[in-house]
Specification:
By secondary structure, the protein is an alpha+beta fold. The chain folds into three domains: 145 residues, no CATH class; 86 residues, no CATH class; 98 residues, Lipocalin, CATH 2.40.128. The protein has eleven helices and 15 strands. Strands 7, 8, 9, 10, 11, 12, 13, 14 and 15 form a nine-stranded antiparallel β-sheet that branches. Strands 1-2-3-4-5-6 form a six-stranded antiparallel β-sheet, with no helix packed on it. Strand 12 and strand 13 form a beta hairpin. The chain is globular, with a radius of gyration of 22 Å. Keywords: Signal.
Length: 353
């Protein structure tokens, strides 16, 4: 089955990437992958808070499983890898045609049955998932999910950061627009990344830049002031204040929380993350989820309270390392004013006391 799928994909790649039709055969796999890539490219160009809607779309359409099948096919087929790169490039080009309304168009696409593999390609989706050996599929999905972050690579990337400054960004949170001041990474080579979590991206900063190019631009110093490139126009940062890296073994003594609203399907869900840091290097984390106040009372009991987690933390530069007592290690970027206990930005999210 694997060989047949690979050959079918290889020789049918010339078909229109956005062709529609009633028949759903293996020859239409390039069409399906082109649509998946197209949605991904649009999402990359939009604020991070569109990610929740994108994740829901991926879950509904079993995208993780489909991509795992394709990764199984790619293992021993260099030609196939090149062809799929062409698909991704073409999808990126088509996405750029909507640069004036990326996010509006993304909302339309996420809601369109034509861009839902389970609806647009039902037989093909079933064929892929049924005929690919479950052992190979599970193994590939576990491999992708288990790829560890490399702390040494994180530190190498962090060493290339000149400073951190803040800019005002328009975000979308659970379908609502919001304006926030968010930390951005200014690299020594003149690159600027609008996503502070790039430092802890799997594969490092270089992979983040390749996967999410819309999050990257340039910065410069002009007459003693730093500026960033917004399209073709140089602009000043919302604040001239810089946030230098923290010294090794910096300690905190505070309780911080971050709240976000996500799309729970039937009703909005409020997720609350609470960290308590102490000066002896210990921390606790609590996670709670519950329905928004806007939902009917009969849904109010649908809440989740997860067990408290404990461990020790380390801070070095812009890197916060959380060592949980159960053996898990979590890496986050951290930005704060050493003269103030709040707010603290973890992976770009604002935590407050």
């Amino acid at each position: 089955m694997t060989s047949f799928l690979a050959k079918s994909l290889l020789f049918s790649i010339g078909a229109s990437a956005f062709a529609f039709g009633e028949e759903a055969s293996i020859e239409r796999l390039p069409d399906m992958l082109a649509k998946i890539q197209y949605v991904a490219k649009l999402t990359e160009a939009c604020p991070d808070d569109y990610q929740s809607e994108y994740r829901n779309w991926r879950k509904l359409n079993r995208i993780d499983a489909i991509e795992a099948v394709v990764n199984v096919l790619l293992v021993d087929d260099a030609q196939l890898q090149v062809r799929l790169t062409d698909i991704a490039r073409d999808a990126g080009g088509k996405a750029k045609l909507h640069r004036a309304d990326y996010c509006v168009h993304l909302e339309q696409v996420l809601a369109s049955p034509d861009f839902m593999p389970v609806l647009a390609f039902p037989e093909l989706t079933q064929k892929l998932l049924d005929e690919t050996p479950q052992e190979a599929l599970t193994s590939e999905m576990e491999r992708v999910a288990a790829q560890p972050l490399d702390p040494e690579l994180i530190r190498q990337d962090m060493a290339q950061v000149e400073t951190v400054m803040f800019n005002r960004r328009h975000l979308r949170i659970a379908g609502k627009s919001a304006v926030v001041d968010a930390p951005e990474l200014l690299f020594k080579n003149g690159d600027l990344c609008m996503d502070a979590s790039a430092l802890v991206f799997r594969g490092g900063v270089a992979r983040h830049k390749a996967r999410r190019p819309a999050k990257w631009t340039r910065w410069r110093t002009n007459n003693g002031e730093r500026e960033w490139l917004n399209g073709e126009k140089w602009e000043k940062f919302v604040s001239a204040k810089e946030f230098p890296p923290l010294q090794e073994d910096f300690r905190m003594e505070n309780t911080l929380s971050f709240q976000e609203e996500t799309d729970g399907g039937a009703f909005p869900i409020i997720n609350v993350v609470r960290y308590q840091f102490s000066s002896d290097g210990k921390f606790t984390r609590n996670l709670d989820s519950y329905p928004s106040q806007d939902v009917p009372l009969n849904n109010a009991s649908v809440s989740f309270y997860y067990p408290k987690q404990e461990g020790r933390y380390e801070i070095d530069g812009y890197l916060l390392t959380l060592h949980f007592d159960d053996g898990e290690t979590l890496y986050k970027t951290i930005v704060l004013d050493k003269n103030s206990s709040s707010p603290v930005w973890l992976n770009g999210d604002e935590y407050v006391e």
